């Protein structure tokens, strides 16, 4: 069984709101609606304490903001393999993270972006999982061979590719911006 760790940042509004919403939904479904009213009045610190209580030792709190280091890829600099950014609907994040089964991953944007380091052999699986979730997997760091083989983005369906080419031609008829990208 995997241990789940949730990082709570100072001012952790989203995590606290997630737990508040989940607890409030359970309380609203119970006959005693007073619990829901009490939870809504809790301060952020009280909600974070509640998250600690619910998850036990699986919560760590850090005061510095790690997201700039995630966004620039710094968190993956020493990890082997390719680095990917998978963009999906936040509600699909738990399922997609489980299906990706990457040894190293981080969630960002309330789960809408999953950053991961995975072996080069996992490229097709990562793109398949992202596409199944109606998302997109972007290959950020890879060997020259793997970048040439898989490209930055997955190929688009023919109709969408034609539409993108038409829009680009309308806005950039001389093909000055990102030539050959679409």
Structure characterization notes:
The longest helix has 17 residues, at 13-29. Helix 1 runs antiparallel to helix 2. The strands form two sheets. A four-stranded antiparallel β-sheet has the order 4-5-3-6, covered by helices on one side. The chain has a two-stranded parallel sheet with strand order 1-2. It is extended, with a radius of gyration of 21 Å. The protein has 182 residues and is α+β, with helices and mostly antiparallel strands. The chain is 44% helix and 17% strand. It folds into two domains: 6-62; 67-151, Alpha-Beta Plaits (2-Layer Sandwich), CATH 3.30.70. It has eight helices and six strands; from the N terminus they run βαααβαβαββαβαα.
Notable features of this structure?
4-stranded antiparallel β-sheet, extended, 17% strand, alpha+beta, Alpha-Beta Plaits, two-stranded parallel sheet, 182 residues, disordered N terminus
* Order of neighbouring strands in the sheet with most strands: 4-5-3-6
The value of Rg in angstroms is 21 Å
Report, as a whole number of angstroms, the end-to-end distance: 44 Å
Specify the biggest β-sheet.
4 strands, antiparallel
Measured by DSSP, the beta-strand proportion falls in 15-25%
CATH architectural label of the largest domain: 2-Layer Sandwich
DSSP strand count: 6
Helix content: 40-55%
Give the averaged pLDDT, no decimals: 75
**Which series of helices and strands comes N to C?**
EHHHEHEHEEHEHH
Shape: extended
């Amino acid at each position: 069984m995997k241990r789940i760790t949730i990082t709570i940042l100072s001012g952790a509004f989203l995590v606290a709101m997630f737990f508040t919403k989940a607890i409030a939904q359970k309380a609203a479904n119970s006959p005693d609606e007073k619990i829901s009213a009490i939870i809504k009045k809790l301060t952020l610190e009280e909600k974070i304490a509640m998250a600690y209580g619910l998850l036990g030792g699986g919560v760590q709190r850090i005061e510095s903001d790690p997201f700039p280091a995630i966004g620039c890829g710094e968190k993956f600099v020493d990890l082997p393999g390719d680095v990917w950014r998978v963009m999906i609907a936040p509600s699909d994040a738990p399922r997609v993270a489980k299906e990706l089964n990457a040894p190293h991953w981080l969630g960002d944007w309330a789960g809408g972006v999953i950053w991961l380091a995975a072996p080069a052999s996992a490229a097709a699986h990562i793109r398949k999982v992202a596409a199944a979730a109606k998302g997109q997997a972007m290959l950020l760091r890879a060997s020259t061979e793997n970048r040439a083989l898989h490209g930055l983005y997955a190929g688009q369906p023919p109709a969408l590719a034609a539409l993108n080419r038409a829009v680009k031609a309308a806005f950039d008829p001389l093909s000055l911006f990102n030539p050959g990208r679409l």
